[in-house]
User: Fold U2A'/phosphoprotein 32 family A C-terminal domain-containing protein from Anguilla anguilla.
Amino acid sequence: MSESSSGVVTNNDSYPKSHSARYSDLSDAHTSQAGPSRQRVSVEQSPDSGFIATPSPSSRFRFVSWYKLEKHDVRGDQLACPRVREGPSEEELFLRGEQNVLMDRRRGEEGQRWEERLQENWENCVELNLSYQDLGDPYQLENFNRILRRLIRVERLQLVDNALRDLSSIRLPRCISLNLHRNHLTSIRQLPKVPRIQHLCLSENSIEALGELALLGATPLQSLTLSRNPCEFLEDYRSRVFSCLPKLEVLDGIPKLLEDSVPPKPLATSRMCTIL
Assistant:
């Protein structure tokens, strides 16, 4: 167990071994991880006023990134499940007299110390799990995107249940397996650039149109998961997907069938299936 670049405890979970059920465990899994860390308090008893709540000794570290702690040599590429922790509000920083921290935040990545960037070492991450981030704070989302932009060597990336809406500005040049289960994507155009993608999970998003799948036609995509998207209820759903992606081998965990090769009906006559 170790702390992430933003303070989360990590583990060594890996992808399922079965090819047809590559994302099945992740698609139905529920996280028990808590949201952003909150200030912990310890209760002390006073002889004249009853109980008094005081901050615990660790509270002063709740906004400190792991690479800013002393006496450790953990690098970012050694972490499996880092968590982007919530940062203090600008008002709190001002009241605490930490305007220098506020200025550092505004400087962003350009102002980050070179030693800290080396210790984060996101450029050398090959497999990374950034799921269940609960990106409700603007600082979290900014830091999350900053990490994604540095993943130039990542091959397997999990971004499950992060309420992501648009990753089109992100490029993952070596990524072959990407899990975006349970996010808020509405279009294939909102995906990151993944020229080497082989296994892509988009289950439980809000994708309605299938025509944009052709944008993935130049990739070596082998398996695709689109279950629990509105497009799943389109007439001739499977044949339309394989029509856009002729090289695709597996859709929603099911290998390509003979009937999937039948040309779909013209789009003008396509309609949504009625579920009684």
About this structure: Confidence is low (pLDDT under 50) at residues 1-49. The chain has six helices and nine strands.
